[in-house]
Amino acid sequence: MNQSLRAPGRLLRQYMVVTAAYWAFTLSDGALRMLVIFHFHELGYSTLDIALLFVFYEFFGVLTNLAGGWIGARYGLRLTLRSGLLLQVVALLMLAPVAESWPKLLSVVYVMAAQALSGIAKDLSKMSAKSAIKTVVPVAAGQEQQGERTLFHWVAILTGSKNALKGVGFFLGGAALFRLGFAGSVSAMAVGLVLAWLLTLSLPDAMGKMKQKPAFAAMFSKSRGINVLSLARFFLFGARDVWFVVALPVFLEMSMNWNFWQVGGFMGLWVVGYGLVQAMAPGLRRLWGQRQAPGPGAVQFWSAVLMVVPALMAVALWRSTVPGATVQGSTAVILGLTVFGLVFAMNSSIHSYMVLAYTEAEDVSLNVGFYYMANAGGRLLGTVLSGLVFQLAGGGAGGMAACLWGSALLVALSCGASLRLPRPRHSPA
Q: What is the pLDDT of residues 32-66, one digit of tens each?
């Protein structure tokens, strides 16, 4: 068979391997988050203590994305993906011996170190998978608009499926803690990731590698589009995690008296639905008559819509007349989460496409790494604020409402930043 005919099939197989490995990692990542939150909350840790357990996870994600893009461009995406999977295995095995009898300070420091490895692993894997799309969906000369629509479609599928599986991971984390205990759960996940790592042995060394070795300074983006979009992404993901990471699961457990199964299942279903909407974003835009790939206007519109949602949720909680678990508060959180998930999914899907629209295949891992550095920075900000604001506001409905007001403010900042986005080269708007 002609080499030119074999090439698309070979690229597709490579992408399928990358995606399968990323899916496996995502399941473990979602499950681990629920395991850590519930396990340490049961041990009597405050929400701020739990938030601190994730600080290194997010902080090292910032550093990893910055350096990881440069490593991927210089040495190939195969190396970064395989390294991410192995580091997650090490992080999981580190957590297995943690016991209730350990001194609290030792437990916190030790788990923070394991979470640091997990954060490095997560962002190496994410950067590798997201960058791989650009290498297998090239935009041919004379077919730019079709190529950009195809790119948007593939980005939406990867991003949406990843988040759907992360939601499944949330559910599995709550279920595994109930059935296997903390040590048994992390050990089982480590075995699964070793099997996923074996899949990546078939990937070529040169995948994503630049022809000319980039200098270390190249990891800082010089593109206005990437820089502005990264700033908007920073605030966008801070707006999600300020209430989602710590405040929400603790609120559901303490104020609404939900058990681990219910909290893990609810949050899992929310993330699954959020992921499905992300995957369907191109189709939904076509239903609304938007047949071209999205541009800056789409980012600005969906950011403005999103800003209203947490503010309305906060008002509904504030107006709840009965402290703790009220029907009004419960309804506000559940319905508000559903709307927030739908709108945030459209935002995130369009953002994930735009970063690739602003870059070329040759330097994709550098720009994607810089962009997801900002993403990790926003998660870090949101994680710390989630535990801190919830605790300072007294927990319960008041603490949750305070976190939601913080979310509305951060979305407003993201929307303001997006007003300065330039038009991508192939974007119609």
A: 888 887 778 777 777 667 777 777 887 887 788 77
- Measured distance CA(84)–CA(66) in Å, rounded: 15
Give the structural domain span for 300. Answer: 6-209+216-419
Read off the CATH number of the domain in which 390 is found: 1.20.1250.20
- To the question of pTM greater than 0.85 for the whole model, the response is no
Per-residue DSSP letter, 360: -
Domain assignment present for 428: no
Share of the chain above pLDDT 90, in %: 17
Q: What number of residues does the chain have?
A: 429
Q: Decide if 427 is inside a domain.
A: no
Q: C-alpha distances in angstroms, 392 versus 251, 317, 376, 388, 398?
A: 14, 17, 24, 6, 10
Query: Residues near 46 by Cβ (< 8 Å), separated by ≥ 6?
Result: 387, 391
Q: For residues 396, 402, 404 and 406, what is the CA-based torsion angle, rounded to 10 degrees?
A: -150
Please compute the mean of the pLDDT values over residues 390-394 and round it to a whole number.
Answer: 87
The structural domain count of the chain equals 1
CB 138 within 8 A of CB 150: no
- Other beta carbons less than 10 A from residue 109's beta carbon: 13
Residues 148, 293: contact at Cβ < 8 Å? yes
Question: Token pair of 286, please?
Answer: 């076509």
Place of tokens 């920073």: 234
Residue 18 has pLDDT above 90, yes or no: no
pLDDT at 411: 96
| Cα 132 from Cα 198, distance rounded (Å) | 18
Give the pLDDT score at 413. Answer: 97
